[in-house]
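Entry: Alanine--glyoxylate aminotransferase family protein
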Amino acid sequence: MTHTIPGPIDPPARLLMGPGPISAYPSVLRAMSAPLVGQYDPFMTAAMTETQELYRAVWATQSDATLLIDGTSRAGIEAAMLSLIRPGDRVLVPVFGRFGHLLAEIAERAMAEVHTIETAWGQVFAPSAIEEAIIRVRPTLLALVQGDTSTTMNQPLDEIGAICERHGVLFYTDATASLGGNPFEADAWGVDAATAGLQKCLGGPSGSAPITLSPRAVELIQNRKKVEAGIREAGDPSSPDFVRSNYFDLGMILDYWGPRRLNHHTEATTMLYGARECARVLLLEGRDEVIARHELAGRAMLEGVRALGLTVFGDVAHKMHNVVAVEIPEGVPGDVARGALLEDFGIEIGTSFGPLHGKVWRIGTMGYNARKDAVLTTLAALEQVLRRFGAPVPAGGGVEAAVDVYAGAAAGAR
Ligand SMILES: *Cc1c(COP(=O)(O)O)cnc(C)c1O
C-alpha cells in the first residue's frame, strides 16, 4: 500500500478582510508556538490566572468568574445557555440577524420555552421595544447579540442591564463580533453573562471563547449544582437542575478555573497562550486606543467604499466599527469578483447569509487588520476588480477618500 504524504502545512499569503476570521497578530502566532507544559504545572496555572486577570480588564469587570471556554465562540454560547437555562425556562431572544437565530436555536436545545422578537436586517432594537417584550413574555433570561456580523449592526446594550434588573431577568449577550473593537462594559452595563471568540477584533484564531459571569449568574449556577447534588451524588438526570452537558457545565468549569482547580477537561494549552496574548496586546495598546483604531479604520473603509460608488447596507449610525456591508453593484457577479480579489490580490472579503445572500459583500477591519495599509490595499484592489467587472468607479476615489480620513485624524490629533 502506498500513501501520498502531503507536505508540511504552508498556507498562501492572505490579507483577511472579511467578517472573521481575520489575520492574527504576529505575536499571537508566536505565543502559540511556545512549548507545552503540564496541566497542573505552576507555570500553567499561573498563566490561567493571568489570563483571567487580563480578560477582566478586556470585559471591564471585577468578576472572578472570567475565564475561557475551550472551543469556538459557540462553545461559549452553549456553555452560557446550557448552564443558565433550565428546561421549561422562558427565554427571550430579540433577533436582528443570523446570530440571533443561533441564540434562539441553542436556547431551544437547552429546552427553553423560546420567544423571539424580530426587526428588519440592518436595524437594531430600541431598548423600549425590548422592555415591552420582557413585560409581555416574563422570561428568566434575555439573550441578545451585541454585534451581529451578518448585518454589521451593533445593538446598544447600555440600558439593557437596568431594564433586566427592573424585571428580574438575567441578561446574556454574545459579544463575539464586537468585543475589542467597540465599547463593552460588563459591570457598568449590568451584564450577567457575556461570551466572545478570538477571531474578530481580538485578533487571534478561532478556538477559544472568553466568558464572564456576574455574581448573580454564578449564584444561579452554584445553586443549581447544590440542588442537583442534594438529589443524588452523581446527579439526577431527571432533575431540571441537571446540566445536560458535561463539557459545557459551568459549575464544573468554574471549579476547574477556581482556587480548588478540580479536574474537568485539560485546558487547551496552545489556545490559552493565544488568548492570553490577544488580551495582552490589546491592553498594552490600551482598550480605548484599540477601539479608536477600529473606529478610524472602519470610518476610512466606509468613506472608501462610498467613494467607490458603492451603497452601504443598513443603519450606518448603528454599524459596528469593524465591519461594513456594501451592496454588490448591478451586473457584477459577486462571488466571481470576490474570487478575483482572493486569487489576484490575496485579499479575502466576505459574502452574506439569509436575506442578504448574493446581495452584499462584507468587509472587515478587525484586530491586526484595523490598519491603514490594510484598508488602502483592500480599497485599491477592490477598485480594480470592480472596474474589471464593468462597474463604473471614479479613479483613485476609494483610496483617496480613505487617505483623507487618516489625514484628518492625524491633523485632529496634532
Ligand atoms: C462570528 C460570530 C460567531 C462565531 O461563532 P464561531 O463558533 O466562532 O464560528 C458567533 N457569534 C457572533 C455574533 C459572531 O459574529
